[in-house]
């Protein structure tokens, strides 16, 4: 099994604060990983480093075999547009562009603009009839679906989603998670940052951060775990010497975090 | 759709779907473009107006003959007057008047009489104050000094005598011409008045007029005979013209019994380079004429225009700086409001250069729209000002308008450099930083 992402003892340090503390993690191609933890646990900082938008203070990030610390700003931008699709909690759509134009922006920076393909992406997320509406004319769920369509338009190998359902109601949360499920089935690697237990439970694998330190890891899909271990994959680990840290090669289980108001039943409807 | 098409789609969306922001930027450019274009138009109109105003104070160029004929003064013949006028007209607008000077006697006192075309002189010298009418057949226009000396009034009668001997050895025609008007020519300051000149002429005439009869000297100095004219008007200029008697060319020819060329042609030339015109006339030696600029008029004109233009330049510079600050502040505000969008674009893989180009072109667009509207408004304003202040309308200057629009776009782009430069350094992580 090829490892798409390899984190080797990465840390992000702001003064005395260790936002991410000595984390090692490998993510194979096609895995759906959830990074969970409470607010301020370093999830987004970790995601920024994976997404080439921030650099670690220590350690190394390897994406598709390339060490990101060896790349300059232009090359990092190339990695972002060629390998990564981003989904944000606050959608971040360009307010003066229509839904289809927002999708086409990603094409524009990636390669060649194709309106037909952009409309197909919107159709895939169920928004073809809203393609020519401005973000202000769309609901939160619709905007997030546009964001997903924008993330998948260039067929990235890795989708990074930061709290993708954080601003959505149950119905729209289900739509978005169904979309992720489809993408996962098509072999796209998905890394979701969330503190929503339900969203995390949809992933094959979960790791938990607490104040920047890895404190747990669990698999929701045993077959995926077996395949991972058979390919030589090891549990995530941290070199941080704090109580409760997952330091060795044995995963420490954990209970799903705080927000679990929405039930799994609602997703299987 | 091509990427270029998408580029412009994003551009037009940013401009036309974010109207309130776009309007702010356009208005900032518009105000600058309107003010600068208005100033520039007035800057062009003022010298033209000044030229015309200064032309009303008489000639700025005089032409005199360089050679005398066998009888002492043949002057410039009508064909040469026409040819010289064509040369002046070829360089710009022109108005001219020709003068033939003769020494005459009134009540035995010497005076200078000028043969003129009244219409030409009237058209050239707007500053002459004439009480009564301009000369016509049998009627003369006399200077204020002549009228006062003779106690004459409009409608009165004056007897003018002509003696060929008075005009036999007059001074050189060029001196005579220079003294005929209030012309202060370059290279020589000639404040000779007609009366002074007449006096000199009279002296020589007196000498030549003395004849020996029976061993005694006989003189016609007290001879008061002559032709009677009616005084049609009295001219008051405050200058040497006040000592001259003006009659029609035909009357002067009748009085003298000879027809000859003129002694001086005065021009009000509208050319921008008067010295070049003078040189070109003087270079034609075969014409046997000498051209001289009237420095009193041209230097005043140039000095006032230079002062006004300097003032306009300073004001324009201030307006330009204010426009830069205004547009820069507006663009800076627009860019800062779009920080998240810029971060997002960078997160999507946009390079700093790509984002910079998008914002610079957008700024140029604001400048273009503001420039077009501002130029139109500036022209309207300049037109209104010129009509209200100078009582003249101005034509639309397409080159200046194109320059104004280009400058407005350029200023908008330059003003946007600092904020856009800061924007392109935005860390895309800011977009994802909020947890």
CATH architecture of chain A: 3-Layer(aba) Sandwich
> Based on helices, strands and strand pairing, what is the structural class of chain A?
alpha/beta
What's the CATH H-level superfamily name of chain A?
Answer: P-loop containing nucleotide triphosphate hydrolases
The succession of helices and strands of chain A, N to C, reads: EEEHEEHEHHHEHEHEEHEH
Radius of gyration of chain A: 18 Å
GO molecular function, one term (chain B): transmembrane transporter activity
Keywords (chain B): Cell membrane, Membrane, Transmembrane, Transmembrane helix
Organism (chain B): Bifidobacterium felsineum
Family (chain B): Belongs to the ABC-4 integral membrane protein family.
Overview of the molecule:
Chain B: Keywords: Cell membrane, Membrane, Transmembrane, Transmembrane helix. Chain B: Residues 314-428 form the ABC3 transporter permease C-terminal domain. Chain B: Its main location: membrane. Chain B: Residues 165-223 are annotated as: Disordered. The complex is a heterodimer of chains A (269) and B (435). Chain A is α/β, with parallel strands linked by helices and 269 residues long. Chain A has one domain (3-268): Rossmann fold. Chain A has helices at 43-50, 73-83, 99-110, 115-124, 140-152, 170-185, 197-201, 222-230, 265-268, and strands spanning 3-14, 17-28, 32-36, 58-63, 66-67, 84-87, 158-162, 189-194, 205-210, 213-219, 237-238. In chain A, strands 6-7-8-3-9-10 form a six-stranded mixed beta sheet, sandwiched between helices. In chain A, helix 3 runs parallel beside helix 5 (140-152) and helix 4 packs across helix 5. Chain B is an alpha+beta fold and 435 residues long. Chain B folds into two domains: 3-52 and 303-432, no CATH class; 60-293, no CATH class. Chain B has helices at residues 3-16, 19-55, 78-90, 118-124, 144-150, 173-180, 194-209, 249-256, 274-283, 295-337, 339-347, 352-390, 398-424, 429-432; strands spanning 61-65, 94-106, 109-116, 129-132, 139-143, 157-162, 211-213, 216-218, 227-236, 244-248, 264-269, 289-293. The model of chain B is unreliable at 170-210 (pLDDT under 50). Chain A binds chain B through residues 39-40, 43-44, 47-48, 51, 53-54, 73-74, 77-78, 80-82, 86, 88-90, 92, 94-97, 101, 104-110, 112-115, 134, 150, 162-163, and chain B through 1-3, 5-7, 9-10, 13-14, 17-18, 340-341, 344-352, 354, 427-429, 431-435.
